[in-house]
Design goal:
291 residues, alpha/beta, Rossmann fold, 8-stranded mixed β-sheet, 11 helices, 12% strand
Length: 291
């Protein structure tokens, strides 16, 4: 049985990923991670209403990726339920995220970048050491942010030898700049783009540090979720008119990186399951990145 933890799985892309794995891969057992246990239970119930036979392959894990105590307690719960030997988990999907830059850069980084690190710090020891996988769900906003950044920033966040210390220092410098700024520094999605570029870099670092695991990042595509819906509203359009796809259409890359045969580790994949560059946008259907 391949047990997979997915954070932020009570709605949107996370919930759609849980449903896809349960429906298409009989060997999977899904740990539905949710910050709010009530909303998590509602999501779990919705899945069981759809397919009651999934009840033996599905469990709820309360986990707030912004809080060390919550993440560590969730890891302890997994050990209590499934033991520590043999390794209780096959994979981790760091899906939880926020996009509201009005909350400030620190809040966005704490969820979108430090969140995956907290989860990996706590749960990596529970992964199967020979076949374990990690999928960090990021965004094309990361490459788009780097495309407009300085050469120094591009070099840092695409460096195959990047360290967590360097990533953390960069985030600290960004926070300092934010506190000192007097004018807008790039639009409502700047904080989001920074956080996703940093999480892509963290994926490089984590893969280098854990060569026996398969660790990659991916974008789900332009998907209608609570995170993106306000963009359509602010433009006076429907999500469909903005070109957004359904959450169910946003799971392909994550599922491929979990259950398929990706080439290598420490890479970033487009929504079409094809390797993509970290510092510029690659459209779905374009040739794979080979750098």
């Amino acid at each position: 049985m391949k047990r997979i933890l997915i954070t932020g799985a009570n709605k949107g892309i996370g919930l759609a990923t849980v449903a896809k794995l349960l429906g298409s891969y009989d060997e999977t057992f899904l740990l539905l991670g949710s910050r709010d246990s009530k909303k998590g239970q509602q999501a779990l119930n919705s899945l069981l209403d759809f397919q009651p036979e999934w009840k033996d392959r599905l469990d709820l894990i309360q986990i707030d990726v912004e809080q060390d105590l919550s993440v560590n307690s969730a890891a302890e719960e997994v050990v209590t339920k499934f033991g520590k030997t043999p390794s209780p988990l096959y994979a981790i999907v760091n899906n939880a995220g926020i996009g509201d830059s009005m909350l400030g850069l620190n809040k966005v980084l704490q969820v979108n970048t430090f969140g995956p690190k907290r989860v990996c710090d706590a749960f990596l020891p529970l992964l199967n050491p020979s076949i374990g996988r990690v999928v960090n769900v990021t965004s094309a906003s990361g490459p788009l942010y780097l495309a407009g950044s300085s050469n120094e920033t591009k070099k840092l966040l695409t460096n195959p030898e990047v360290s967590w210390t360097e990533i953390e220092k960069f985030m600290s410098e960004c926070l300092k700049l934010e506190s000192e700024r007097t004018t807008d520094w790039g639009g409502d999605w700047s904080a989001y783009g920074i956080s996703k570029a940093c999480t892509n870099a963290y994926s490089i670092y984590l893969a280098k540090k854990n060569p026996n695991l398969t660790i990659n990042a991916c974008t789900p595509g332009f998907i209608e979720t609570d995170l993106t819906r306000p963009m359509a509203e602010s433009n006076g359009k429907t999500p469909a008119e903005m070109g957004m796809k359904s959450p169910e259409e946003g799971v392909s890359a994550s599922v491929f990186l979990l259950m398929g045969n990706p080439s290598g580790s420490g890479h970033y994949y487009g929504s079409d399951c094809v390797r993509s560059p970290l510092d510029k946008y690659r459209s779905p259907g374009d040739p794979p990145y080979t750098g």
